[in-house]
Known about the structure:
about 190 residues, Rossmann fold
Amino acid sequence: MRRARPRVLVVGQHDEDSALTALHRLTGADAPVAVVLLAHRFTCGGLRRILACHPAGVLHRASAAAQLPWAVGAAAAGGPVLGPELVGVVAGACPCAGCAPAARDEARTLLATLSTRELEVLELVGEGLSNPQIAAALTISSDTAKDHLGSICGKLGIRGRLQAARVAWQAGLTGRRGTRAGGGRPAAVAGCR
């Protein structure tokens, strides 16, 4: 790896413990490579520990063939990626269960500043959909979805898609539509623009 100097390294692991060990070795401060992790199973706590190691991407191995080309490109461009089947793990069981009531109330207060359409867009961002997927779900253009996301970020005083998704998760906004991000490409966790 040191001689070739790859921009992205794809690492496959069977369990969370071996994934964490690999990530600790590969994602240190002096690591010049983005790591995309493939794993078979994730628990809520294990996925949180994995994400705390700051990999460039995390994908479920079962969907890797379809998702990997796009994920590697996004990771090489500096955008962290979370596979669509993992969005439910993060957005479903994890955040609200571990979310303090004060954080949930604060997030819900922030939502009062948003229009109905912005709330719809924020919900879909929280479910992991990309701008083109949001556009298709709401029958709007991709540029309009992008504009709504920019407006949401401005009104909430946040920077980026990940922070917007976190507000949606904390407020319990996700999962009300019954939509799933599966089947599409993973949403890059990138800026609002």
